[in-house]
Automatic annotation (TrEMBL):
Organism of provenance: Caproicibacterium lactatifermentans
InterPro entries for the chain: ExoRNase_PH_dom1, ExoRNase_PH_dom2, ExoRNase_PH_dom2_sf, KH_dom, KH_dom_type_1, KH_dom_type_1_sf, NA-bd_OB-fold, PNPase
Record protein name field: Polyribonucleotide nucleotidyltransferase
Subcellular location: Cytoplasm
Record-linked HAMAP family: PNPase
Cofactors demanded by this protein: Mg(2+)
Gene it is expressed from: pnp
Region listing for Disordered, in residue ranges: 702-723
Entry's family note: Belongs to the polyribonucleotide nucleotidyltransferase family.
Record GO biological process: mRNA catabolic process; RNA processing
Any one annotated GO CC term: cytosol
Span of domain S1 motif: 624-692
Enzyme class: transferase
A GO molecular-function annotation: 3'-5'-RNA exonuclease activity
Length: 723
């Protein structure tokens, strides 16, 4: 039945890699099932037969889907089925997109969809790598025009300095970096990295290690293409004629140069609007109904001007040097009620970041295929339309916003203190106020400011910067801190974030068919110098170190470790005890399975009172110790005070105050909070408490200067609790 079924096999990092074709999804333009270990991913590539009307870009869509059955789990949603893709799936789709997009014809307008469905997951074998390899195989054997194949691996760094190709789940726990490298031919087309402050040279060698591993994989895909690949279909390329392009260049070249020669984006846009209007009017009769083609001609003319300035004159649009950063500014504490805020400005790019601190139980619960179940550090990025001067309603975060937020999160995560050092959940939100290039890197800088202002003891400040590239044949050049127009007309946006000591994150966006190792090395060198300049020259001048105390609006958090066998007593039957503590002390509590108890509240006194109660429950009352208790009931000759749930004792009337008391109700009433000292625990475990002794100790009073307590009739009698 499956006569065309073929299976290709190779070994990758000591595990078998199989690519099966001709059996599944036979109506797609190209399809394969990738099996890596026990990970299985179905990958398909389809294309529309006709170009999409009215678009001036290549309409590629990459969908990466995680099926919960892949790990034998039923989805936790109400409908018990997969819904909106989790963040990790969106990021995987973006990674695959960036790896394959540069190799499609730029003038093709046919819709192309690449779909990768994770159907079985082996934690030791990355489904993202399997999906990327499957996408490459499906496109290679399809009839869709594409300049691949590509190959990709993930590179880890063991504690002993050994590079690991596609590390196992256990190896990933100790790895100092995770770098995904995709290669086509002799060049790298995609790099994405997260690292625990890794030196530039180590990162560079890790990237090269991945690239060399890819070189060994590529022949497999070429063999598939040669043996079973379909002939690529021809497509209709819609673009302006050479004659129109030449006419527009002759007429408008000087005007375009003059319009673009400014550092102000708004001025440039206003000037170009006039140039566009003039060109449309001038060629209305010669090229009727051709605004779309004229628009394309003007776009190419702008691209020509920018690239010629860079390549021939070493000139940038705003007059900067190639390694010069735009004017920088930074400040903190813009918003009085938030727990921490920071504003970072670089040229006309501006990002305001806020930090909100919460209890550990506020960590985000993850419902995906990964081994991590919750995330205590959350970084989100918002890009409203007003930041680029446009009018468009907000529709929630798109894939780009999710991706930029994840990049900033990855960059800062290595410097975030552990939960033992700083027992808080942290939500960081970066609001892009204006955008003219590299807002994701500006959000990293703004987030460093906000975290330090919030009093989060980060290990070191982190800064991010981008490096651009322009190529022509074998000639190429790089420039630091690209603004929007250089990103738009250039060939690369190489984003690097890190501390002064090393790299924490990399993300590379590419428009050409790959980078050489020399290009990568130069980008790493230039971005290191630039981020040091940002850290020393701007960030540390705005706030030299994390604040020593939290905002008065931040919750006060305390942590205590209790024996595991005492957890039940602290929680109580049906949660009765923990609810009573939270209500009485106005706090929130989170009890972990390992015995860690996190207590948070707006008032420090309340959190301390809760801790005292927990210690009392776990250790039991201790003679000689002072506790804050609550009056629960009154009798003629005293008051009963509860110092912890189920831990109650009697304060005799003679011990209610430092002066003689005639009537209990003259001093206390039910519900009052009082300080008491445990004077005695009798043979039956009953507590004798004293407010008098507590005051003497707390206030440093001399008992000889005080009236002696007067013994009362029936002082020895203790009533039993009413049934």
């Amino acid at each position: 039945m499956f006569e065309n079924s073929r299976t290709y096999r190779t070994s990758l990092a000591g595990r078998e890699l199989q690519i099966e074709t001709g059996k599944l999804a036979q109506l797609a333009n190209g399809a394969c099932m990738v099996r890596y270990g026990e990970t299985a991913v179905l990958c398909t590539a389809t294309a529309s037969s006709q170009p999409r009307e009215g678009v001036d870009f290549f309409p590629l869509s990459v969908d990466y889907e995680e099926k919960m059955y892949a790990v034998g789990r039923i989805p936790g949603s109400f409908l018990r089925r997969e819904g909106k893709p989790p963040e990790e799936a969106v990021l995987a789709g973006r990674l695959i997109d960036r790896s394959i997009r540069p190799l499609f014809p730029k003038d093709m307008r046919n819709d192309v969809t690449v779909s990768c469905i994770v159907m079985s997951l082996d934690p030791d074998c990355s489904p993202v790598i399997a999906a990327l390899l499957g996408a490459s195989a499906a496109l290679s054997i399809s009839d869709i025009p594409w300049g691949g194949p590509v190959a990709a691996v993930c590179v880890g760094l063991a504690p002993d300095g050994t590079f690991l190709i596609n590390p196992t789940e256990e190896q990933r726990k100790d790895s100092r970096m995770a770098v995904t490298v995709a290669s086509a031919g002799e060049r790298m087309v995609m790099i994405e990295a997260g690292a625990k402050i890794v030196a530039d040279e180590e990162m560079y060698q890790g990237i090269l290690t991945g690239h060399r591993a890819n070189m060994e994989l590529l022949p497999l895909f070429r063999t598939m293409r040669e043996e079973i690949g379909k002939e690529k279909f021809t497509y209709t390329a819609e673009h302006a004629s050479d004659e129109m392009q030449d006419d527009v260049a002759v007429y408008a070249l000087d005007a375009v140069r003059a319009a673009m020669d400014t550092s102000d984006k708004m001025v440039r846009d206003t000037r170009l609007q006039k140039v566009y209007a003039d060109v449309f009017a001038h060629f209305a009769e010669q090229y009727p109904d051709s605004e779309k083609q004229l628009d394309e001609s003007l776009y190419k003319l702008q691209k020509y001007v920018v690239r010629r300035w860079l390549l021939d004159e070493k000139k940038r649009v705003d007059g900067r040097g190639m390694d010069e950063i735009r004017p920088l500014a930074a400040e903190v504490d813009l918003l009085p009620r938030v727990h921490g805020s920071g504003l970072f400005t670089r040229g006309q790019t501006q990002v305001l970041t806020t930090v909100t601190l919460g209890q550990v139980s506020d960590a985000q619960t993850l419902d995906d295929l990964g081994e991590t179940k919750e995330k205590r550090y959350m970084h989100q990025y918002n890009f409203p339309s007003y930041s680029v001067g446009e009018t468009k309603p907000g529709r929630g975060p798109n894939r780009r916003e999710i991706g930029h937020g994840a990049l900033a999160e990855r960059a800062l995560l290595p410097v975030i203190p552990s939960v033992d050092e700083f027992p808080y959940a942290m939500r960081v939100v970066s609001e892009v106020l204006s955008s003219n290039g590299s807002t994701s890197q500006a959000s990293i800088c703004g987030s460093t400011l906000a975290l330090m202002a919030a009093g989060v003891p980060i290990q070191a400040p982190v800064a991010g910067i981008s490096c651009g590239l322009v190529t022509e044949g074998e000639h190429w050049m790089t420039m630091v801190d690209i603004q929007g127009i250089e990103d738009f007309f250039g060939d690369m946006d190489f984003k690097v974030a890190g501390t002064k000591e090393g790299i924490t994150a990399i993300q590379m966006d590419l428009k050409i068919q790959g980078l050489t190792p020399a290009m990568v090395r130069e980008a790493l060198l230039k971005t290191h110098k630039a981020r040091n300049e940002i850290i020393d020259g701007v960030l540390l001048k705005a706030i030299p170190a994390p604040r020593g105390k939290l905002s008065k609006w931040a919750p006060k958090m305390e942590t205590v470790q209790i024996p595991v066998d005492k957890i039940r007593e602290v929680i109580g039957t049906g949660g009765k005890v923990i609810r009573q503590i939270c209500s009485e002390c106005n706090v929130q509590m989170d009890v972990k399975e390992d015995g860690h108890v996190y207590v948070s509240g707006q008032e420090e006194a309340g959190t301390q009172r809760a801790l005292d109660i927990i210690h009392t429950i776990v250790e039991g009352p201790k003679p000689g110790r002072i506790y804050c208790g609550k009056v629960t009931r009154l009798i003629d000759f005293g008051a009963f005070v509860e110092i912890a749930p189920g831990k109650e004792g009697l304060v005799h009337i003679s011990q209610l105050d430092i002066k003689p008391v005639n009537k209990v109700t003259d001093v206390v009433k039910v519900g009052d909070s009082v300080m008491v000292k445990v004077v005695e625990i009798d043979s039956r475990g009953r507590l004798n408490l004293s407010c008098r002794e507590a005051r003497i100790e707390l206030e440093g009073l001399n008992p000889a200067d005080l009236p002696a307590p007067q013994p009362r009739e029936n002082a020895h009698r203790r009533p039993t609790k009413p049934r």
